[in-house]
Amino acid sequence: MRALPPQGQDWPELKQALLDAKARDYSWKRGRMAVFFYYLDEALERLQQEAYMTFWTENNLGQRAFPSLAKLEGEVTEMALSLMHAPEGAAGSFTSGGSESIFLALLAARERAGKANPNIVIPDTAHLTFDRAAWYLGIEVRRVAVDRERRSDVMAMAAAVDYDTIALVGSAPNYPFGGIDRIEALGQLAQQHDLWLHVDACVGGFLNPFLSKLGADVPAWDFAVPGVTSISADIHKHGMAPKGASLLLVRDAALKQHHRFESSAWARGTYAAYTAQGTRPGGAVAAAWAVMMHLGEAGYLDCARRIMAARATIAAGVAAIPGLEVLPGNHAIIVYRSTDKALPIGRVATAMDQRGWLVSRQAEPDGIHLHINPLHAEVAEEYLTDLRAAVAEAREGAAPEMAAGRAY
Ligand SMILES: Cc1ncc(COP(=O)(O)O)c(C=O)c1O
Prior knowledge:
Keywords: Lyase, Pyridoxal phosphate. By secondary structure, the chain is an alpha/beta fold. It folds into two domains: 48-295, Type I PLP-dependent aspartate aminotransferase-like (Major domain) (Aspartate Aminotransferase, domain 2, 3-Layer(aba) Sandwich), CATH 3.40.640; 296-391, Aspartate Aminotransferase, domain 1, CATH 3.90.1150.10. 39% of the residues lie in helices and 15% in strands. The protein contains eleven helices and 13 strands. Helix 3 packs parallel to helix 9, helix 4 packs across helix 5 (129-137) and helix 9 packs across helix 11. The site of pyridoxal-5'-phosphate has 12 residues, from helix 4.
């Protein structure tokens, strides 16, 4: 087992060791990954780093010590609330990521409802983070099959609601297929039964508004829809900020009390927090603030335009390859599969992997999943050239099959 070195080493040597360690990773900077990263250009990369470093060690738990961070967090939250058509009196919390935002939403829904055996009713395309948060929180999850368009089947969800249901969920969009659920109908159902409706816009929060502006068909999904109680929106996804930045937004600031912990049961007096984290990195807030202020509406529109261009090129290119089929969709997520028994998609995945592309294997249907970000506009043609070669190789039967379900 490795132990601490007896004597410390100098930074130049350690820096080289870190660079050597990452040399064999897949290259996100060359657009080789369609999962895990969001990249625009070197100018934004430098801005992210410098903004983060400005507050690199400040602790955002200590907002009395760092009123600057409280102000920046407030401004980030307000910009997001206004983007998502929140009414006066809405509020939010800055979290470490989509998982924490969703955890807090379910905690708040549970505390608000106060049911003995709580359950949530969600479309089966919702992120597994709901199941993970529900596991932490002692909540039963009722996953309901989606309809033929792979969107929430609201009648079937209504049938799954009972006395112990505390919340409904819709995604905007969901991660497996990129579809946006029927949020308006879910809002009506939520209001009928006085349920918390959480919209998971971890992927779409900072993209949907701009896709709409570009004329894409984006069904209503945000606080403009009556009945939407909370929204999770990740600034570290299409908000283009470095990792560790998400928001849980609530329609009414009073709802925040349901995910607020407070206790005085120790020697140090009162400890209170709205988030699951205690110590929180100030750099994440500063970088999110700087990215949002730097990109502004025009910058986010440009990102959305690049994503749509990449999507169009890749989807058309894949569809033109005999034996491959692209599932219907118009968001940043593309799923394709094989329609030809002589062309196992797992072999195509292996052949792409061997060409340096990190491949996400979709389990249902057996296929390949891509989450497009702005950089992909620059590598779309390269991707297609390699895919055509990978398909030819897969037909020859040389490559072993990459197992399905290797999403992460
Ligand atoms: C739709 C959706 N919700 C939630 C999450 C979880 O977010 P995080 O990985 O930031 O915790 C993801 C992550 O990909 C997602 O795609």
